[in-house]
Amino acid sequence: MSTVSTRPPAGRYGRASDDRADRTLKVLGAVLGAVFLAVIGYFAYHYVGQNRISAEVISFRLSEDSIEVELAVEKDAGASGYCTVRSQAENGAEVGRADFRFDGDATRLTETVTLRTTAPGTTAELLGCHAD
After folding, report:
1. What is the rounded distance in angstroms from the CA atom of residue 25 to the CA atom of residue 65?
2. Residue 128 CB partners (closer than 8 Å, separation 6+)
3. DSSP label at 91?
4. What is the pLDDT of residues 62-85, one digit of tens each?
5. How confident is the model at residue 117 (pLDDT cuts 50, 70, 90)?
6. Dihedrals φ, ψ of 42, to 5°?
7. Residue 83 forms beta bridges with which residues?
């Protein structure tokens, strides 16, 4: 009676897998994965964590050559920065864009700002806020 072997005959199917090369590739993959996650975490922190000013449009009033926009702004005490607001016409063309600064020690404030437009606008859109 013969014994069943789990190993293929030597030299018949080419080289056997190299365990050391497999381990090196696994370690290299783990290191590259950790570096990738660290880079993503760094950029996420600076994008989300460093934005100390946020705002939202509460209301807006339209006129022929301007739009009054009421903004609710939340910021860190003593932080300064600006928010960008734009207006578009009915056909989608941008008719006005401006940056409005916010300074001071208050952490919550409601400001009414006036955005001048080149044609009658139909919307007021907050594009974003940035700290200095």
Report:
1. 64
2. 83, 84
3. T
4. 988 999 999 999 888 878 889 999
5. very high
6. -60, -50
7. 100, 129
- The enclosing H or E element of 19 equals helix 19-44
* Segment 117-122 mean pLDDT: 92
| pTM score of the predicted model | 0.60
- Give the whole-angstrom CA distance, residue 99 versus residue 79: 16
Q: Is pLDDT at 56 greater than 80 in this prediction?
A: yes
Residues 15, 21, 22, 28, Cα dihedral to 10°: -160
User: How buried is residue 28: exposed, middle or buried, by Cβ count under 10 Å (0-12/13-18/19+)?
Assistant: exposed
Look at residue 88 and give its three-state secondary structure. Answer: strand
Tokens of 93: 């063309």
SS3 sequence of 20-70: HHHHHHHHHHHHHHHHHHHHHHHHHHHHHHCCCEEEEEEEEEECCCEEEEE
